[in-house]
Amino acid sequence: MGKIKNNLFFILITFSKAVGLIGCNSNSSSDGDSDKIIIWTQASEDHPEGQMFAERVKKYNEMNPDKPQVEIENITRAGAGSGYIDKLNAAITAKDMPDIFTLDGPDVSAYVDAGLVGELDSYMSEGFKEGFTPAMIDQGTVDGTFYAMGYQDSGVVIMYNEDMINALPEDITSEIPSSDADWTWDEFIDLARKVDDFAKKTDDPAFDDYEVAVSLLLTDITSGAYETGTYYLTPLLWSNGANIVAEDGVTVDGVLNSEESIDALTQYAKLFEEPALASASESEKAFHTGKAVFSISGFWYINELTNNYPNLHFRTLRYPKMDKDYNGLYTPSGSWAFVRNGLETDEVKKTDRRSYGMVNK
User: Fold this and answer.
1) CA distances (Å), 77 to each of 111, 174, 300, in order?
2) N or C: less crowded end of the chain, CB within 10 Å?
């Protein structure tokens, strides 16, 4: 993935040069600083993702001292999407957008529809996209045209505390599937119920801090993971042959409240039937700190767990599906992606660019 990220970053910079972005950004001054490529990302400077971007920019600038230099601004995404998204939307209103910026997968189509994002297809060499997962390509494609290149793909799995699992009797551990095996939500909930029953009566030290069988990490929503509900839960409907909205993108009646949708959410709700296996008020970092046996977790938690919780031993299982016979997409996927300023193109005349405040006067 590192090689993909590196190549992607360089090709995006090439996109910006190919479509004449250099010198057209209003962030550039009139004293010779116009030969710059301005990039905005949602990752904070001290986050591994932000550090990775900074390294890529430094490497590019060092390798290309005679070419326009790249400046990157990391604008931390805060709760409910404020921070980065607020500043990006303010820049759009002020007609002062950066040359390249990041968008979350579900936001791409709205920005494309508003004419703010430029297409990438015509600037890509043959076969370049083959190095990326179908989900990354699909999320960046709108009406058959490719607009957004994800720099990573995310997913969701069931994580489990290995020390806790090893303390279980064999009749329970025998029900845990292999890491590459499909299983259903009914099977997962049945397993969690047996684990919870055992945890409440055992004196094994692995369960000393036990609080809940399944952590949903809902406390992270208040710290900025506002999309968690939709991201985690929509595939539950998919794997039961349902959806949250009709193909027209507007109609929900008869879709969100369909028999299949209700059945899927009813199965998921079993996690909260008394005695509850999950809690919306669980302790913060419950899985991280040994208070939960299982966790419904995105891949992005792996770095946090390995770097900050070295005493936690964990493994992963596939995300369950509702219908065991379902063969379609049933796990969340996709992630943030790079896009280019759609107002800066070869077709935009210089006078038009000036009206958007994107050239030096």
Assistant:
1) 18, 42, 15
2) C
- Angle of helix 2-18 relative to helix 48-63, nearest 10 degrees, comes to 60
For residue 298, give the DSSP letter.
Answer: E
> Distance from first CA to last CA of the chain, Å, rounded?
42
Supply 331's token pair: 């796990």
Residue 218, token pair as written in the block: 């809902």
Rounded Cα distance between 299 and 294, Å, is 14
pLDDT band at 223 (very low <50, low <70, confident <90, very high): low
Domain 2-152+336-355 classified CATH 2.40.50.840? Answer: no
Binning pLDDT at 50, 70 and 90, where does residue 2 land?
Answer: very low
87 burial via Cβ count (<10 Å: 0-12, 13-18, 19+) = middle
How many alpha carbons fall within 13 Å on the CB side of residue 159? Answer: 24
pLDDT in tens, 73-101: 988 876 555 688 889 999 999 989 999 99
In which band, very low, low, confident or very high, does the pLDDT at 8 lie, cut at 50, 70 and 90?
A: low
Contacts of 54 (CB under 8 A, 6+ apart): 45, 72, 74
Angle at 24 between CA 22 and CA 25, to 5 degrees: 100
Residues of each domain in the chain carrying CATH 3.40.190.10: 2-152+336-355, 154-334
Look up residue 326 and give its two tokens: 């379902």
- The secondary element (H helix, E strand) that includes residue 341 is strand 336-341
Rounded to whole angstroms, the Cα distance separating 84 from 102 reads 10
Between CA 346 and CA 106 the distance in angstroms is: 27
Contact by Cβ (8 Å): 294, 203 = no
Pair of tokens at residue 212: 């809940």
Calculate mean pLDDT across residues 41-60: 87
Domain 154-334 class? Answer: alpha beta
pLDDT digits (tens, 9 = 90+) for 224-252: 566 677 888 888 999 999 999 998 888 99
